[in-house]
């Protein structure tokens, strides 16, 4: 290597604000699903510090609040709403009309259409009314569609027809006119048959004047499989005149986790949160549990897990950093270094490279900045996008090499002109 000019940059270090502050600065919600009984100790501290919205993971479902007909248990739901209010957090009510987690007396009963309609309307009036003025949002109808875009055959659909959805929304509006009313579903993140059915439903509800404020994209995803049409799909719902929320984000992997999977997961989290940030009517993102110790994945998909931004011991994973970055926070580059070297030099020009390497850390995107002290000018770069303004050079990753895994490295190169002398600059990594 010509000149043996090697400089290793001191690692830049940034202490990021909590996710809720980063999100608020962008006008977005950063939420988590929670279990009411766990809202103390470290779990409670993180839930309060990092999130500006809470969704009860189970506590507001019909089976939880009315296990026996006419006998109610609001303890966990109340606890979550009280906790949220004490900590300046919104609450997303979840969920009023669903085919799952209903009480046995309801699912095992035989009901006429009129009775079903009455049961549904009364349930909505009671539960929404109980929290009137205190909840920002309700997932009114949950998971109404099959994968092919046909209506799911449920207690509600079979008894009342597709219009149960309009009825439920109308009842919820009457019970709390201020709450934003959503339809929420999974596998509707990308453009596909199911999301198109949801799109057509929302369009027709809007045309009919049925109260509908938003669409929830659950986003129970698999590492490496963020739909490429996510942002486009968010945008098409926004263009219908409704809000969009990512309501149940988690990104699961085959266990055990390793640094490559966690790095990919971080990139995936960043892509999802970034897609929401990019669309004005995407109001925010809720993760379906913030810690791997409070996730539904291992029970439902044996052998899979590690789907949330914190591990079982409440240590933040690369996914946490990635969410912070997508919300505009700066990345901690501790554990990663940038090494600038001149690989060949001639009378008027030279070829240089910067190698970014990580050990005990990983990056999901990078930017390398330096200042030229002797009039050098970049003329061409590869494997990075470089811009020079005066003496300041800033190079950021190409679309294909933003990830620097733990124990790995990325190198980019450039040609530049020089005269007089060609001192080596100090590179700052960001
Ligand atoms: O509370 C009982 C406990 O007493 C008992 O000992 C234990 C034994 O299995 O079960 C506990 O109930 C479980 C409950 O979660 C609370 O942990 C249920 O078995 C279990 O089925 C239930 O799973 C929930 C699942 O919905 C049910 O479909 C998950 O926690 C919850 O995260 C999940 O959330 C759904 C959303 O509401 C809608 N979208 C999909 C998402 C993931 O399935």
TrEMBL record:
It comes from the Bacteria. Residues 16-326 form the GH10 domain. SMART domains: CBD_II (SM00637), Glyco_10 (SM00633). InterPro entries: CBD2 (IPR001919), CBM2/CBM3_carb-bd_dom_sf (IPR008965), CBM2_carb-bd_dom_sf (IPR012291), GH (IPR017853), GH10 (IPR044846), GH10_AS (IPR031158), GH10_dom (IPR001000). Residues 329-430 form the CBM2 domain. Its EC number is 3.2.1.8. Keywords: Carbohydrate metabolism, Glycosidase, Hydrolase, Polysaccharide degradation, Signal, Xylan degradation. PROSITE patterns: CBM2, GH10_1, GH10_2. The keyword Flavoprotein does not apply. Gene3D superfamilies: 2.60.40.290, Glycosidases (3.20.20.80). It is an enzyme of class 3 (hydrolase). It catalyses: Endohydrolysis of (1->4)-beta-D-xylosidic linkages in xylans. The active site is at residue 248. Belongs to the glycosyl hydrolase 10 (cellulase F) family. PANTHER family: BETA-XYLANASE, GLYCOSYL HYDROLASE. This is Beta-xylanase.
